[in-house]
Specification:
206 residues, mainly alpha, 10 helices
Amino acid sequence: MSHPFKHLTLIIKHRHQVIRNGYHLGIFWHCLRHDLSKFSPVEFNNASKYFVGTHSPVYEERLSNGYFSKQCQHHTKRNKHHWEYWLEDNDVGKFYGIKMPFKYVVESVCDMIGASKSYNQKNWNPDMLWSYWIQKCKGKRIQHSSSEYLTEYLIWNFCEFTRNGGEERFITWFKSNRKIIEKEYDNDTLKYVLNSRVEDVSEGIV
C-alpha cells in the first residue's frame, strides 16, 4: 500500500532538519536545495510505495527488487552530498572515490543527523547516529579516505558534544574550528588528528 502523504510529511520534516543544521554550520543557502529530487515522480512514487516510516524506503525497495532501487539510482546521481555521486570507473572495472568538496561532506553529515532524527522521532539519542555510522557506513563504502575521515570526525564530535551539553556545544565548536578543519581536509592531514582522537575515546563510544 502506498503512503504518499506520510512520505511527503517525512520529506518536509527531514529537509527542515537538514536546512536547520546547515544554517548553524554555515551552509544555509547550499542546503536549501537539499533532496529536491525526492519530489520527482521516480523517487516520490517509489518511496511512497515502500514507505515504512522507521527507516529508508530504499531498503524496502531493494528487498523487493533483487537489491536494486530505482529511487536510489536516481537520487544519488543527482545529489552531490552522497558518496555514490563521486564514484569513478578506472576503465578496468574498478571503482574509486573522488574526494568530495568540503561543503558536500558537511551537508552529508547534516543529512545523516536529520535522517537519524526523522526515523527515531520519539526516542532519538546520539548513540543511534554513531551506531549507524559504525555498523552501516565505516569501511563499507567506496569513498575517498579523506572524505570518510572528515565524515567520521564530524559525526564523532557531534555525538560527543551532544551527549555532554547538547548540540549547541557542537555548533560552537564547529564555528570556532571550521577554518582549521577545512584546511586540514584540503591538505589531507585531518586523518592524523582523527586517528589520535579516535584511539583515545574508542572504548567509550563504540
